[in-house]
Design brief:
- The protein has 450 residues and is an alpha/beta fold.
- The protein contains 13 helices and 22 strands.
- The longest helix has 25 residues, at 83-107.
- It starts with 7 loop residues before the first strand and ends in a 17-residue tail after the last helix.
């Protein structure tokens, strides 16, 4: 036993980004650690989320790059795209990452248990193989899963989990949702040649992002040929004799497509874990309620990542997992600061943001000053592509402190990572103005805003 009373010092349920980090760091502090995973080591991001999706985004960008290359003197004869080649190469790299995460845990002497684990008491865990174990501390890191709307025939659709395994590209695809997953897959499938339609229950895309960026993405998406049906909810889905799907919805005519993809949010994976038997309190949406140190209503049980419903981002889960291990096993109480977290949408083009939107800043500070740059990148100018970037900086009018930066355009997420450091550090517009530009770049616009 770990300390003479329990089998383990720490038992982690879920080997995603947060669970793996917590396990590794706790073991480095000398704890005896086991982690249970019922699917594959690596979690949503690595296995069926942001990593393989970003690879598809890279693949999709070649569609326009090949077209634009002609203006730069390149002759591209009859380019052809093979979905299965990209799909299989992406899945092969997912296998590599799964092995890498497994190796990391093994090297840190973390025991990996490839079984489903459920709580049967405050310190007891039952494994699906029939064994029961005990642990002094328990960490829940089971993540979240795609939400599937309720309607007749909903089982005929797929989620982002299955999108990476399609046998062929659907000629026509209906994507439900207005968030980052919906817009990212819309850009991917559109560039691969599918006819894409997005339906959304409201009249807004990407709630939480600055309105100017949302409007710009909608304009560009429409020009690229993506259709939108707003204020629409599913009435039903039925399969036709030809094998296609006929979708009926509110406020719009029926549409016939070859695939329906749900991207309508994610739900915390808390069902069937036995949390009630351990006394763990859940929130209104099934999320685990935790304090600033990721502790649940039970002193020795913690939770990190998407299952807590705080911020559903992989880097946040990793930070929470590390902070948990520092707090419980490292003697260094650490709370993750969830304020001013940068984020990105890998749409086509991508957008990125950190801090307050203009609306949020006006509500909080009253007087704000907004600086914008609306321009066409050099590459687009030569290629004859009439697609414009928009950079926006929101500042406190009195102090000049930067409250938020918002960008849409090529490489916006790459640029935002550095810009977010400045916003987090509380720098001012004057600090940006005093910085010499790197010319010619898109990012120089951030220090030239007027």
């Amino acid at each position: 036993m770990a300390d003479g009373e329990f089998d383990y010092d720490l038992f982690v349920i879920g080997a995603g980004s947060g669970g793996v980090r917590a396990s590794r760091v706790a073991a480095a502090y000398g704890a005896k650690v086991a982690v249970a995973e019922e699917y594959r080591v690596g979690g949503t991001c690595v296995i069926r989320g942001c990593v393989p999706k970003k690879m598809l985004v890279y693949g999709a960008h070649f569609a326009e790059d090949l077209e634009d290359a002609q203006a730069f003197g390149w002759t591209i004869d009859a380019p052809k795209f093979d979905w299965k080649v990209l799909r299989d190469n992406v899945l092969k790299d997912v296998d590599r990452l799964n092995d890498a995460y497994t190796t990391t845990l093994n090297n840190n002497k973390v025991e990996i248990i490839l079984e489903r684990a459920t709580l049967t008491g405050p310190h007891e865990i039952a494994l699906s193989g029939g064994r029961s174990v005990t642990a002094k501390h328990i960490l829940i890191a089971t993540g979240a899963r795609p939400h599937v709307p309720e309607c007749p025939g909903s089982e005929l659709g797929i989620t982002s989990n299955e999108a990476f395994h399609l046998d062929a590209l659907p000629p026509r695809i209906l994507i439900a949702g207005g968030g980052y997953i919906a817009n990212e897959f819309a850009g991917i499938f559109n560039q691969f040649g599918s006819k894409v339609t997005i339906i959304n229950r409201s009249d807004q895309l990407l709630r939480g992002y600055d309105e100017a960026l949302r409007d710009r993405l909608l304009q560009i998406s429409l020009i690229k040929g993506i259709d939108f049906r707003f204020n629409a909810t599913f009435r039903g889905i039925e399969q036709t004799e030809s094998g296609c799907l006929r979708v009926s919805m509110t406020n719009h005519e029926d549409i016939e497509v070859d695939c329906v993809l749900y991207a309508t949010g994610r739900l915390p994976n808390t069902e069937g874990l036995g949390l009630d038997k351990a006394g763990v309190i859940l929130g209104d949406h099934g999320e685990i309620v935790v304090d600033r140190f990721s502790k649940t209503s039970v002193d020795h049980i913690y939770a990190v990542g998407d299952v807590t419903g705080r911020v559903q981002l992989t880097p946040v889960a990793i930070r929470e997992g590390h902070a948990f291990a520092d707090t419980v096993f490292g003697g260094k109480p650490t709370a993750v600061d969830h304020d001013c977290i940068p984020s990105a949408v890998f749409s086509h083009p991508p957008l990125a943001a950190v801090g307050m939107t203009e609306g949020q800043a006006r509500n909080a500070f009253g007087a704000v000053k907004v600086y914008e740059a609306d321009f066409r990148p050099m590459k687009h100018v030569l290629a004859g592509r009439n697609e414009r970037c928009l950079y926006k900086m929101v500042c406190d009018e009195t102090s000049g402190r930067i409250l938020g930066i918002h960008m849409i355009g090529p490489e916006a997420p790459e640029i935002m990572q550095a810009a977010s450091v400045a916003v987090k550090a509380g720098l001012t517009k004057d600090d940006f103005d005093a910085t010499v530009a790197i010319h010619p770049t898109m990012s120089e616009e951030l220090v030239l805003l007027r």
